[in-house]
Amino acid sequence: xxxxxxxxxxxxxxxxxxxxxxxxxxxxxxxxxxxxxxxxxxxxxxxxxxxxxxxxxxxxxxxxxxxxxxxxxxxxxxxxxxxxxxxxxxxxxxxxxxxxxxxxxxxxxxxxxxxxxxxxxxxxxxxxxxxxxxxxxxxxxxxxxxxxxxxxxxxxxxxxxxxx
Amino acid sequence: xxxxxxxxxxxxxxxxxxxxxxxxxxxxxxxxxxxxxxxxxxxxxxxxxxxxxxxxxxxxxxxxxxxxxxxxxxxxxxxxxxxxxxxxxxxxxxxxxxxxxxxxxxxxxxxxxxxxxxxxxxxxxxxxxxxxxxxxxxxxxxxxxxxxxxxxxxxxxxxxxxxxxxxxxxxxxxxxxxxxxxxxxxxxxxxxxxxxxxxxxxxxxxxxxxxxxxxxxxxxxxxxxxxxxxxxxxxxxxxxxxxxxxxxxxxxxxxxxxxxxxxxxxxxxxxxxxxxxxxxxxxxx
Lengths: 164, 285
Hints:
Structural class of chain A: alpha+beta
Number of domains of chain B: 3
Order of helices and strands of chain A: EEHEEEHHHH
Shape of chain B: globular
Radius of gyration of chain A: 16 Å
Structural class of chain B: alpha+beta
Strand content of chain A: 15-25%
CATH topology of the largest domain in chain A: Ubiquitin-like (UB roll)
CATH architecture of the largest domain in chain B: 2-Layer Sandwich
Strand order of the largest sheet of chain A: 2-1-5-3-4
CATH architecture of the largest domain in chain A: Roll
Strand order of the largest sheet of chain B: 4-5-10-6-7
Oligomer: heterodimer
Strand content of chain B: 25-35%
Number of domains of chain A: 2
Number of strands of chain B: 14
Helix content of chain B: 25-40%
Largest sheet of chain A: 5 strands, mixed
């Protein structure tokens, strides 16, 4: 089959690759671009380990063709920290022990980013509902919820300072 | 897992997309959000030789418009857009509520109304709402457009009234009168509907003047529970009446059976969720 050309901006950097049309976005990100922070868990759009942000939307990159994302701007877990400083969501997972083995964590971080962008002050119930598309098989979800509340508080405090 | 090889097409107009369907016939599949089709392709349940990606048509087919008595929803509108639409939330809330029960946040960001309806998964959520809302579906073919009522659209297991070469372009939802509710029993792993019931009830002074009930997940295609509707219309609403009417929720239906839910259990779920949907819809009337 003819290859197709795909151009993406990932974490601010532009990439062009020739891929088979059937190449999944997650495979291009991991194998084509070498950004292996994005994980493949279930590979059936259930577990959310492969969540990345495409043009502002959290998506499961195992269920998107790379060519569907042609021309888009993507943020992966590698793009969260800046200047050596962890993003408040990452810091929350660190401080609240929001992970054990860490396999699901990149997906949780990216989904949480979308959650907090849409709802900066979510209740525990809202966090649990909005993260239904992400599975954690070891810590359970209590500390993940605490980590996201930590990030919400930190982000709103930063916002308040910025607004002063 | 990855799909079998295919040729990829990304038309930028509807005519171009229709031309590709005409040219490749059964070998072509339309790709909207892809959240039903790609999983099927990864499992090699679906192996189209030609994939026609509709992303270039978002400018034309992604909208939610107020047209007076009707809200017109473009087929490429995502579940998230429908769930959070203020227009739908205030004027056709059943559709907005139902969209919030589909999949999860990431799936709702990508999955589309048109893709979901055209796929016609018997466990999909939208058929229940589309049936209860008495929406019309607009199909575009090479020879022109035609409109199909929701009751005629769902014909069986993954089967709709759309002819080969036609594209579902718009769903026309009448402005809702009365209260509505969607009650769903989730498959605990997949989140699909083992049973989902959408109800709309209108009435004054305690009397039901109009009732519509759509059921998904129970049969090989979404259906209207007309016996339930008839049992309520013209009657004084009460919890007892809702319960007795709901007994007819799976009347005349051959319920699906799988390792998770037997036919009897599915019928039971249909009755229970119909009672709940009727009660909640009446409270919102």
